[in-house]
Specification:
The complex is a heterodimer of chains A (422) and B (284). Chain A is of the alpha/beta class and 422 residues long. Chain A has helices at residues 14-40, 56-75, 94-106, 119-132, 162-175, 192-207, 226-235, 247-259, 272-278, 298-311, 317-336, 341-348, and strands at 43-49, 84-90, 112-115, 136-138, 155-157, 183-189, 211-218, 239-243, 265-267, 287-289, 363-364, 371-372, 376-380, 393-395. Chain A contains twelve helices and 14 strands. The chains are: A alpha/beta (422), B mainly alpha (284). The interface between A and B is large, with 52 and 55 residues.
Chain lengths: 422, 284
């Protein structure tokens, strides 16, 4: 006899099942017309971001940021006198992201779309936006190709692109004498974002007399890096460079600290959520960021205070970027008094300036729709100087420097193959 | 030189296989004795990691690694008494469904308690760094963990129960031990091992709510290759998976993750019950 034989199976009575089903059906029939009526008076905005998978952690911050912005806008009277109805969902993967984007525009009545971190998913949403002639703000995707050869009139790019991240870190490394004549080994995420970042890194190494002696393309589901670390050791580089994204950066940083290699680890991409997850004692080196919660700016600090009050932890850079994107969108709709995508595009194409919580105001460059803004390299604070577990990073000098034009760190028209169809 | 690098990958793969073993053995144990494919096994692995991180701030790393498997094993008692016990003789599809559902509930519960953002912990300084033996390089931490796992399975009565439980469940039952309390102990052992795996992995991987689902795929591959109901099958499969992955990454990095599934495919083509698997009536 198997253990537990006498207990038998659980049986759900058919009557209970039918009763529950009928109750659900009844509630649905009574509730829906009221819900639909209420929603007709709202402005619907579709928000897609990865909530699962290797980008899920930073995606959940993005969702919190967008929701906070929607709440604040609604509390201050909404946009054009209407409340925002933010439809926020997990984008899951590029194919599902496109399906959901299409559904949000076609069936749910979203007037614009925003969100995303994965460059691969952002690319498919961009195609949906163009097909439907609706604006899409790609808030967290960093691949140069999205605002380059894949650019389109309806897509706007809020995060800094790969080239800027490479320039921000590369400049800081050059100042420390860690680039010229040095041997680099890169570990690169094997999808559009990583390929693109490697391309930008190669261009930087080429222009600054550095040698790329090895690169490993790494599938996005890899969690154990030990075989790759052995290959790093075999190559004996001067500097190891991480071109990964999301949880993979955290895993690599932890395992790199575990193996205790003498070669410094730096990276061209890191989100603060991944830095916090790696832990203070594991992270070292120089990395780029688009924003950090200690940035001394009144707009940023007001956002940090509101977010921290609500969630008992400071916001991560993806929370900030989704927050400011919804805020600047609301500002644009209020100013143009329209939710029409073409009118919004015309407004942004005037290179209207927005306060995004940094020293200099930002604007969408009219010819590639890139939000031109400051970026920062950072290093890691010694553990004994941290005020709390979130206070891990020391921001380096802003790039570009205060007296250089903002666009000087972005790809130029000659470098960027973006050609928008009218 | 090339051969030396390849050997280094093989040895590293064996070490990694030791890790997979800890998770896969518990899965195989609960299956062998209770006939249940426990899809919630990964949730106990995740809980082990979270409890370890939580305790580390108060008790230090060593004590936390030792305590967290016991804490999670206590949860295993509730899991067995109130859930698993009802499904030992039922259609296997029901236990699959209920443990699948439980895995999702556990993941969301972790999200509610600890939040969606990962929590972090570190290896103590003295365990960090590499050990170089001859031409081979090892992570000191992983070697210590592997030694711990070996001692646990080979030198303790705990290990003997695990080995006997997987290999000869009917014989253990025939010795006159009452089945239900015995099953409770088996589930405690199984989930305790998963939690120990979680505690060991916590400092070298991202501790996040979905980490249980991540490890389950590899654990299943190992159990399927090894064959259900075979202790040595699971041991060989865990080591084989680690080694094959290492070799694949050495020669063709892009095929690294796919290689273990190709291995599973090939093994199942030749031996549908896995390397050393036995015929299990319930599933045939």
């Amino acid at each position: 006899m198997r253990p537990g034989e006498e207990t038998g199976m659980i049986r759900t009575s058919r009557r209970t099942l039918l009763r529950t089903g009928a109750a659900f059906a009844g509630v649905s029939a009574l509730g829906f017309p009221a819900i639909v009526r209420a929603q007709a008076e709202k402005i619907r905005i579709g928000h897609l971001t990865p909530l699962t998978g290797f980008l899920g952690v930073i995606g959940s911050y993005a969702q919190l940021g967008a929701r906070l912005a929607a709440e604040e806008i609604n509390q201050s009277g909404g946009i054009l006198g209407k409340q925002i109805d933010l439809l926020s969902e997990d984008s899951i993967n590029p194919a599902t992201a496109a399906t959901k984007a299409q559904r949000m525009l076609e069936q749910d009545g979203a007037v614009v779309l925003l969100g995303e971190i994965s460059s691969a998913s952002a690319l498919t949403i961009m195609q949906v936006a163009e097909r439907n002639k609706k604006v899409f703000f790609s808030t967290g995707a960093r691949s140069d190709a999205l605002r380059g050869k894949n650019c389109n009139k309806y897509s706007f790019h809020c995060d800094i692109p790969n080239t800027v991240m490479v320039n921000a870190v590369g400049t800081a490394l050059s100042q420390k004498g860690m680039v010229k004549g040095k041997k680099f080994f890169t570990l690169t995420a094997d999808y559009i974002f990583g390929h693109d970042l490697l391309k930008a890194a190669k261009a930087f190494f080429g222009a600054h007399d550095a040698n790329l002696i090895g690169d490993e393309l790494i599938a996005t589901d890899v969690t154990d890096f030990s075989p790759y670390l052995l290959k790093v050791r075999q190559a004996k580089p001067d500097v190891v460079c991480c071109n990964l994204a999301g949880n993979q950066v955290t895993n690599l940083v932890k395992q790199y600290a575990e193996f205790g290699f003498p070669y410094p680890l730096v990276g061209f991409n890191l989100n603060t959520g991944d830095a916090w997850a790696a832990g203070a004692g594991n992270l070292s080196g120089t990395w780029p960021t688009v924003w950090y919660h200690t940035l001394n700016n009144p707009t940023s600090q007001a956002f940090v205070a509101a977010f921290t009050k609500k969630h008992a932890k400071p916001p991560e850079n993806h929370a900030w970027i989704d927050y400011i994107t919804l805020k600047l969108l609301a500002e644009a709709i209020n100013t143009t008094k329209s939710t029409d995508s073409n009118e919004l595009i015309a407004y942004f194409d005037k290179q209207t300036q927005f306060d995004i919580g940094k020293a200099r105001k930002a604007y969408f460059r009219s010819w590639d729709h890139q939000l031109v803004q400051e970026a920062y390299p950072f290093t890691v604070k010694p553990k004994d100087q941290m005020k709390d577990q979130w206070d891990m990073l020391v921001l380096g000098d802003v790039v570009p420097a205060a007296n250089d034009p903002l666009e000087s760190i972005y790809p130029t028209r000659e470098q960027n193959p973006c050609e928008m169809k009218a | 030189m090339q051969l030396e690098f390849l050997l280094e990958q093989v040895v590293n793969g064996l070490v990694l296989g030791g890790y997979y073993l800890l998770i896969a053995l518990g899965l195989s144990l609960i299956f062998s004795v209770g006939g249940i494919v426990n899809l919630a096994h990964g949730a106990f692995y995740a809980l082990g990691a979270y409890v370890c991180v939580e305790l580390t701030t108060r008790l230090g790393f060593g004590a936390s690694v030792a305590i967290s498997p016991f804490a999670v094993a206590l949860l295993g008692i509730l899991f067995e008494r109130f859930i698993l016990r009802r499904f030992y003789t039922a259609d296997p599809i029901l236990s699959l469904l209920v443990t699948f559902g439980l895995a999702m509930v556990a993941e969301q519960a972790i999200r509610m308690i600890w939040g969606a953002a990962p929590v972090s912990t570190e290896i103590p300084q003295s365990f960090r760094g590499s050990v170089i033996v001859g031409d081979f390089l090892f992570s000191r931490y992983r070697l210590l963990v592997l030694l711990g796992i070996w001692l646990l399975l080979q030198k303790t009565s705990f290990g003997r129960v695990v080995r006997a439980g997987i290999q000869r469940p009917d014989m253990v039952a025939a010795l006159g031990i009452r089945l239900q309390p015995y099953m409770t102990a088996i589930v405690m052992l199984g989930v305790g091992m998963a939690a120990l795996g979680g505690a060991f992995f916590a400092p070298i991987t991202t501790v996040h709510p979905a980490m249980g689902a991540e490890i389950m795929t590899v654990a299943f591959v190992v159990v399927v290759i090894g064959g259900l109901g075979s202790f040595w099958g699971v041991v060989i499969a865990a080591l084989l998976v680690g080694v094959v992955r290492g070799i694949a990454i050495h020669f063709e990095p892009a095929a690294g993750e796919a290689s273990i599934y190709i291995l599973m495919f090939l093994v199942l083509l030749v031996r549908p019950r896995g390397l050393l698997g036995e015929r299990i009536e319930k599933f045939e």
